[in-house]
Protein: ROK family protein
Amino acid sequence: MHTDLVAALDIGGTKIAGALVDGHGRILLRAQRPTPAQEHGDIVIRAVEAVLGELTASPLWSRVTAVGIGSAGPVDASAGTVSPVNVPGWRDFPLVERVRAVTDGLPVELIGDGVAITAAEHWQGAARGHDNALCMVVSTGVGGGLVLGGKLHPGPTGNSGHIGHISVDLDGDLCPCGSRGCVERIASGPNIARRAIEGGWQPGPEGDASAAAVAAAARAGDPVATASFERAAQALAAGIAATATLVEIDIAVIGGGVGKAGEVLFAPLRAALRDYATLSFVQRLTVTPAQMGTDAGLVGAASAALSRRPTNTVVVG
Structure:
């Protein structure tokens, strides 16, 4: 039995999580720091180094053979750099080089956070057993990743499957990315809430104007809240159908905060998918909620590190 471990980092705008993970995807040790997202880039990397410091101090560290990083993007795996939208101090930041420096030169695999979550869902979650899958994170933003031919498909820079920035409305709102009518501009949590408020939906007495509050209102029958979720579902369906038509996926997995809305999202999404996924080879496409929860980023980063090491095997089971 292989006893090698990998270190995993999950880097987002809110927290930097680290773990030591075995070949079955079991987390043996955790460390975490808040992301000082608005600080200078050197302060952000110090938080990453503090997480790694906790991991390297463990007696288990001697068994670590590689490091996997799933980071908010854009990332550039070919250059080893990251430029997360929500961490302005990091622009073309040489993250791989800096992580290698504090881990005694171990091999480092960098992928985008959407790709990391895809790796986790394919290894142990809702996409397990599917050779061709799209996994999406629908929360503050909309990200994703692809499994093609049974393998994670991160693409040359680690961003492949970034469905949030497919345009589904040619004359739609300008997206912060510079394009128009992107899936993210319609289906992300803040945009679901914005549209509901613009339509006259009133937050409750506590003033909760989140997408979760809109989902609760939709469940209670509020027509404006329901319409905002239906519009988000339509955008997601168009993006998923376009992806399926291009690369013949047979399952789309949806995670993130908005993915937790349940049938308020999934019922109109399945209905809209029938309107967009019309060709014979995409009609069997299924859509399902993600299963991996908050550890998906870590497990996926570990999976990427394990699968790129020729001496290691990812153990399914």
About this structure: The longest strand covers residues 27-34.
